[in-house]
Design a protein that fits this description.
Layout (H helix, E strand, L loop, with lengths): L9 E8 L6 H11 L3 E12 L4 E6 L2 H14 L2 E6 L5 H13 L5 E3 L14 H11 L5 E2 L3 H8 L7 H10 L4 E4 L10 E8 L4 E7 L8 H14 L4 H17 L24
Parallel strand pairs: 1-2, 1-4, 4-5, 5-6
Antiparallel strand pairs: 2-3, 7-8, 8-9
Helix pairs in contact: 1-7, 2-3, 3-4, 5-6, 7-8
Bound molecules: pyridoxal-5'-phosphate.
Pyridoxal-5'-phosphate (PLP) binds next to β1, β2 and α7.
């Protein structure tokens, strides 16, 4: 019998499938569920990858992607949409059309441009589309420092404040630039939230050793869930950064290269049965 009393906001995650379960849709499902929402999913592309790198990206036809999104949007009251790897500029076109038709739903974009192992995951055409047409539809985007420099085309010497300013001018509501890729401080990771009204929030965490696969997905999905549950942008950012840091700190290895964030660290631990 289903419970009519428990309210679970629905978060729609749009992204690619990683068969290793580190990044992409599986990361989204785990992080959205762990943060109190129901994950609905639409697959943009399949990938062939292991914990080291992505070797193949297989986009789904755009019409099949939009049909998945429409099935969820027409049936459920969706509280937030999280977007990760888009896979093709045709997929982006379809998603952009749907977002324009549902302007009331907050959109959180993790601008996935390259795999942790280095493989390029966007074409120049898709990058332009994200910059010019998708960013203006987003409540929040969560680039790392490398993605912020590429997306803003501001040049790596321009500095993070300038990159954020350019991204805000492109039309997104706010920008959270994560600091894991900025290794200028060996002990700390500094994350910066920029808002259109220029207020900023800075949160620092101890830098953890090693590399993790799906940390960006985890953060953006946790943010979408927290925003979907009605938290303010600042509270959602705090919740999602704390959650993601804990996932990484309690992460584990399944393969030869990058570790997997432990997105279920608050459920049964491996040894507690
Ligand atoms: N989504 C998919 C399907 C991916 O393959 C990747 C990276 O390879 C990502 C998202 C982004 O992963 P991360 O969160 O490690 O940046």
């Amino acid at each position: 019998m289903h419970s009519k009393t428990e309210h679970r906001p629905v978060v729609l995650a749009i992204g690619g499938h990683d068969p290793g379960g580190g990044a992409g849709i599986q990361a989204d499902i785990e992080a959205i569920g762990a943060n109190g929402c129901h994950p609905a999913t639409a697959i943009t592309c399949l990938t062939v990858q292991d914990s080291c790198n992505v070797s193949q990206l297989i986009p789904l036809a755009a019409e099949h992607l939009t049909a998945q999104c429409k099935a969820v949007l027409d049936d459920c009251s969706v509280s937030a949409i999280k977007i990760g790897l888009l896979g093709s500029s045709q997929a982006a076109d379809g998603v952009i059309r749907l977002l324009r038709a549902s302007p009331q739903i907050p959109v959180i974009l993790d601008p996935v441009l390259a795999a942790g192992g280095g493989s390029e995951l966007v074409s120049e055409q898709l990058l332009d589309k994200i910059r010019e047409e998708l960013l203006p539809l987003c409540r929040l985007i969560t680039p790392n420092t490398v993605e912020a420099a590429r997306l803003s085309a501001g040049g790596s010497s321009a500095g993070l404040d300038r990159h954020a300013e350019i991204l805000l001018q492109l039309g997104c509501g706010s920008v959270l630039i994560t600091g894991t890729h900025d290794e200028s401080d060996p002990n700390r990771v500094i994350n910066r939230l920029y808002r259109a009204d220029k207020q900023t929030m800075i949160r620092q965490y101890p830098r953890l050793p090693g590399e993790y696969h799906g940390s960006g997905c985890t953060l953006a999905a946790a943010l979408a869930a927290s925003i979907g549950r009605g938290q303010s942008l600042e509270n959602a950012t705090q919740t999602a950064l704390d959650y993601s840091w804990n996932c990484l700190q309690k992460g584990y290895r399944t393969g030869r290269c990058q570790s997997i964030p432990n997105r279920w660290f608050e459920t049964l631990s491996n040894n507690s049965r």
